[in-house]
Amino acid sequence: MKKNYVDSLVTGSDFDDFFLMKSMAVRTGSNQKKYIDMILGDKTGDVSAKKWDASEAEIDELESFGDNAIIKVRASVTEWQGKHQLKVSRFRQAKADDDFDVEEFIRTAPENGSDMYDYIMGEIALIRDEELRRVCTVLMERNREKLMYYPAASKNHHALMSGLLFHMKRMLKMGKKACEVYTNLDPDWVVTGVVIHDMEKINEILSNQWGISPGYSFEGQMLGHIAQGVKMIDRLAQELGIGEEKAVMLEHMILTHHYEPEFGSPKRPMFPEAELLHYLDIFDARLFDMEEAISAVPPGEFSEKVWTLENRRVYKPTFVK
Amino acid sequence: MKKNYVDSLVTGSDFDDFFLMKSMAVRTGSNQKKYIDMILGDKTGDVSAKKWDASEAEIDELESFGDNAIIKVRASVTEWQGKHQLKVSRFRQAKADDDFDVEEFIRTAPENGSDMYDYIMGEIALIRDEELRRVCTVLMERNREKLMYYPAASKNHHALMSGLLFHMKRMLKMGKKACEVYTNLDPDWVVTGVVIHDMEKINEILSNQWGISPGYSFEGQMLGHIAQGVKMIDRLAQELGIGEEKAVMLEHMILTHHYEPEFGSPKRPMFPEAELLHYLDIFDARLFDMEEAISAVPPGEFSEKVWTLENRRVYKPTFVK
Amino acid sequence: MKKNYVDSLVTGSDFDDFFLMKSMAVRTGSNQKKYIDMILGDKTGDVSAKKWDASEAEIDELESFGDNAIIKVRASVTEWQGKHQLKVSRFRQAKADDDFDVEEFIRTAPENGSDMYDYIMGEIALIRDEELRRVCTVLMERNREKLMYYPAASKNHHALMSGLLFHMKRMLKMGKKACEVYTNLDPDWVVTGVVIHDMEKINEILSNQWGISPGYSFEGQMLGHIAQGVKMIDRLAQELGIGEEKAVMLEHMILTHHYEPEFGSPKRPMFPEAELLHYLDIFDARLFDMEEAISAVPPGEFSEKVWTLENRRVYKPTFVK
Amino acid sequence: MKKNYVDSLVTGSDFDDFFLMKSMAVRTGSNQKKYIDMILGDKTGDVSAKKWDASEAEIDELESFGDNAIIKVRASVTEWQGKHQLKVSRFRQAKADDDFDVEEFIRTAPENGSDMYDYIMGEIALIRDEELRRVCTVLMERNREKLMYYPAASKNHHALMSGLLFHMKRMLKMGKKACEVYTNLDPDWVVTGVVIHDMEKINEILSNQWGISPGYSFEGQMLGHIAQGVKMIDRLAQELGIGEEKAVMLEHMILTHHYEPEFGSPKRPMFPEAELLHYLDIFDARLFDMEEAISAVPPGEFSEKVWTLENRRVYKPTFVK
Amino acid sequence: MKKNYVDSLVTGSDFDDFFLMKSMAVRTGSNQKKYIDMILGDKTGDVSAKKWDASEAEIDELESFGDNAIIKVRASVTEWQGKHQLKVSRFRQAKADDDFDVEEFIRTAPENGSDMYDYIMGEIALIRDEELRRVCTVLMERNREKLMYYPAASKNHHALMSGLLFHMKRMLKMGKKACEVYTNLDPDWVVTGVVIHDMEKINEILSNQWGISPGYSFEGQMLGHIAQGVKMIDRLAQELGIGEEKAVMLEHMILTHHYEPEFGSPKRPMFPEAELLHYLDIFDARLFDMEEAISAVPPGEFSEKVWTLENRRVYKPTFVK
Amino acid sequence: MKKNYVDSLVTGSDFDDFFLMKSMAVRTGSNQKKYIDMILGDKTGDVSAKKWDASEAEIDELESFGDNAIIKVRASVTEWQGKHQLKVSRFRQAKADDDFDVEEFIRTAPENGSDMYDYIMGEIALIRDEELRRVCTVLMERNREKLMYYPAASKNHHALMSGLLFHMKRMLKMGKKACEVYTNLDPDWVVTGVVIHDMEKINEILSNQWGISPGYSFEGQMLGHIAQGVKMIDRLAQELGIGEEKAVMLEHMILTHHYEPEFGSPKRPMFPEAELLHYLDIFDARLFDMEEAISAVPPGEFSEKVWTLENRRVYKPTFVK
Hints:
With 321 residues, the first copy, chain A, is of the alpha+beta class. Chain A has helices spanning 56-65, 113-125, 130-142, 144-147, 163-181, 187-197, 201-204, 218-222, 224-240, 244-256, 272-294; strands at residues 14-28, 34-42, 45-51, 69-80, 83-93, 205-206, 215-216, 301-302, 315-316.
């Protein structure tokens, strides 16, 4: 089990432990010898690590692990310009039977991917409109594998493993509640809107199996998940024989869910369930960022400025539970 | 009981019926005689009405009724430049025992004022924090009389009798639901935020007993309900001995609930319950406007452009219940 | 042949002549008799016309003509509140063998629809990339009938019969010229971009056979021609087996051709031919509006303020040819 | 007396002299020994200073001095990466009888705090309206101690010791002059507006006795000096029995003095003296920043870009006195 | 002397009196006879007037008076659609020896043109820099005649006879006062900035001898008084042999005095006197509009919304002198 | 001939070669000896270079070369913090007969200055309007020497030697083509607009003979090339006796060619040739930046974000020639 974490390294100590290798590069030192410059990380942060005087064999081996491999290193902790640095003497890739838990390395949603998937499928089963139910079911089933680990963003809100499912689940719960208060809202459309609205993030951003995104896909760069989502519904509606009115309304929900032109929505919502969808989306993102911002703040203090919250600080009251 | 409504007048017909006199003015006709020019209304719209050759006694009498009196008129329906017009021969003020219902003349909230008041008081009673509970209780009790009829705006969203209570009640229900999904939210602060956020509208806008607002008060013009609300909490916190942290947080909720500087909030919310308060507020207003916009639209068609919805049209699907 | 035009009516004169009936409504006069209130128009403007004391037969007949019929009226010219008005005594619908030219009633592109269509097809034939050539050819052929009369907008720039073809042709000519100067540009992509960019206006706006648009289609309201165009290319690429890179680049051209988020483009162009497409589009529109604004202005004077040109006035020099 | 200033250190020289210790931190060197890393400053700038191989006693002693202590150091000047650095061998806290002047370390207003206070009180004594005079007098007297050293901002304009009084005095002089030109303006309201407008900066920002601000108070973060000022006047008006009209007008002056929503004023001024207040405020700030920007610039040259002046450069003419 | 004013006409009365003929048009009545449709005005407002059954001689005569002539009419007061209207039986142009005062018809500055001109020249004489003094003197003398009556705007602030001189004089007084407070400011540059900043309004807008502007000149439309002013200084500097630094600084003052790009200044002020110039200008305009807005408002009430004040209402306190 | 380029240095190698000395500074090392710190560059990039233990003679010599001298150095390649660095042992200034080509050091336009100048003069000769032809001819001839090397900007688009001529030539070619499509456009005005629009960049920005700009001139900072251009035309029109209408239209073209107030144009174009001028200008700049961004990008990939393209990435297709 992992015992040494980035945020509690002690200068001068030695250990063998597991880290996620976030990046590596080969450089030449002032002694004209090659060394390997790595960023190692775990859920508490990142640290620079060096394998000095690296042999070609060591370089080849490390490169073969690929991005975001979990590796075991033997290292001693030094200090450079006021920051910790690891001096690595040995390393090997982690094995299936090593004793570690992936959540020690990466940020994951607080709930299990399968459970969230099942929850959402349960709500979909309650949709009375058969066409909408089929749209949701087909989309969920076809994307099941990726949904298990996809983040909801390449960075910022919900940029965590299974973050997309977590975002969908919270919105879905809140959407159902809204239908109990605003009884004119049709829960079929609310549930469907939540299920489809960000589904094309799976094709807009790239992600490895730890939910870590290196950036955008070709189509994601060129079109974005909103235009991709409109196309996706158009194809699916043709395939499933959904009528024009419903298909266009679903596309409209995707098109408008960012609400403001400068955030990517060329039109604003034109029916109440589309309006709600936007507010479910933005509120879930805002609240996630706020909770994250104050998670490590002591009671009675403000967080640092948070970029995704327009540089607000967030306050944690003294009397918080 | 009222039988003749503005939106279904028939040219050439005569009747005796009740209308709300929305305005009156005395003018001189081309025959050099005075006549009374009135706007009469009911819940279906407004119509111009003339009492030709008006005597001083008639003028005095009508003026004595005051603004927004309900009057009974004997009138015949004529047409002028393509619009209906009433030619009034007799009028009198409505009496307590006349057989009419105020809701035939004015737009009222769909629920009874007392019931909504009691509902909100019931939720307040569930607040665990004693200080917050007292703040809410005192505010509700002191403003009870006005809350019974106050609209939530001088025009646009919730500009109807008891509209302010209706706005509060829907937000409060939705806020409680949100706490079930986002369990880090403290329902005490959510309920309190809803109760206080618009309370000073009572002192910002003017309203007669039918919830019809002629405009803004002096203080409302000069400060607005946000600054007024900050002052109100400051005084109340001093009176009730609320500590600085809670008082400032309550003032912050009021200060930030419009979210954007250009809508009157100089700061954005800095804790999650204040963030939620904004979204409860804006969503309730938007949904109200949307429902109103499509209420008279046939299925499969769009409403007119709605100013409060950034000139959007709202769509009513063909399959709506 | 038409001899009496709206902009040169003489009070007191009588005539028989043809007009486009832009709208009609039945009203009741102060004498309690019905009359028909029409807007008649030709290429020089609109005039109010009345058929007093209209019989039910006359009303039924006029209604049967439908919107935007060309009718022949016998009328005398009167004046009402400083404006001309026609007093109509007789009317009938225009017949195929009547001696008039549709261009006397409506604004049409300065070139013939078929000729412009053929010109564009000629340029398409020169596209070397077979896939792009097929995309263009199929789109043109399938939309041939509507292209003959469709305007490029429901109002403002190019809101004239065959205006869409005219807009395409001028952009296409200019685009080819640009490729001669900026030789890195690929003319295949420039031509294709021009052909596809506004094609879905045909499904966004409604139009009768005179190129007069009563407004937007259901899908046009909900999605707009940019999102519709992305869908259209997606379907067509599937049908024709166009590869992903090209299909996405075509969709990107449509998505970005309005350039600014507030004008409907959620992304900006990411390759040079897409960049050019935007400038071809906006310059053609601006120039059209400018030429129209000064067409009736005497040399040495400014036009009225033009809304589509951000309320600029346009100047016609004294030395203009 | 202080002789060695940060902007004129000579590499290789040694001295004993006084500096303001702006920050300190304990670090571990590459030799695994602790050292103290300080920022020392005087009115001419800041310099990095190191006490190598620091004992626990030395660390404890330095920490006991607290932030922004004035200390005497024995040091030699070295160079590191092109910048001067002090190598400190000894240090002690400054004593009351040491021969130095606080203005050698910090930026102070060009006038004495007491004198400016007296000047303002003199102007207040001339207010004819008894209620306004009392408001001003009470506010000045209650805040006398803090006014002596408070800056007008935590950084940027007037961020100097006694800067708030200096800002008030200049505005007040200019405001009185304005009343001589615009004779409809009531000097009572102009003087009062100046006195109250920024008074709550004392409770919005934090400051030590040298007028150096570490940031914002809790209430300052949550509400800001504008909302705090409205509350302050509300309480004071209640205490002093000021009538509603005047109290609301005073609150309005505070509420509107930043003029633009994005700078914190939800309303714009609604009477002339409030309008003037804004211009007095902004002009004094702008001019202060301009004068500061060119103070060290040679004639005929431009300053660096100034952030508070929207990144303008400021020009000093060649012929300046 | 004029006795009958537009704002106090009595239906049914008759009189002979003087009015400013603001516009006239010849129309054909329903009786096929021509009539003259005029707008007559005085300093209290405008009224529609008709000369029915006008002879060709009468039409010719009226047209010969030209725009904005002062005429004497014999008229009776009638009412049309709730508004007064004059029925004119006779008219003649006012003569030099008629007993009336031009200020009864048009809005004029509260001070005499010659006196204001002399005042400004007096201040110019005090400029110590000989080059600046010559610039100002030459500009004033060359524009003397037009300055006597030019308004400072074609509408809105200072749109009154001699309004430009009045604007300059108030700014100049205020500018001199500012130099007493901000002693680093050079009064030579402040006075010169005021004198030159709007001088080209004389060539930007058109004006008759009553200071009534029909709109913009050709050059004013195409360039605006800011660019015109830069050119004017450039020519004058060449003529007078002013050195480059001073000439460019003067041009910079003109270029930047509107401060914001959207109000016509492509750069912001880069030296203190240019900064002051902007605030002198904007404050004088704002205060003028505020005073005008409340001039007719009773104490304790708000004005109508004022467009030039961003739709603010202005408040007149109950205790105002 | 130059053989060693910055982008392909090999650690440990030695050579004698030519570089452009972009900057130099004298510093004191930790050994208390002086050394020279240089930035050397060629067309492939920049590299830090040190001449350690520099004698006063060496320092004086290097300083005498002036900015942006081409020097020959004997150097060995070392590495410092992961970057190459040159250790210089000898240096001398390049001589006229040295074997190198200036284009190896600096970025130059792809065409020869003289050829482009002649091309533009050839187009000017075709202008039929004699006055416009003289304006263009005089401007070109008087600025011939500077045009040979001036860049079109101090950084970003066309910041290369002879960049201004290149920008003019491409716009001119495109402008002529546009006149073939939009036949209402007058080529005389299009050509003239292109020639004059940026001519004052020669007096706005500074440049050495390699087209490298150290920044802005005094007049450039204070006025900018738009206001400078208006003045320049005004003077030239006086000198050449150009009539007011044409002179003002030329000034208007300069004034409006940036189109948006925030980019320096206080007015928008008011005639078609001025409208075109803006689009010629912006499109040429955009395309230049796009081509540059993708010049080094492999097919099928995106460039880095480009600041001058609003942080877009640019895509190079896989099928590009």
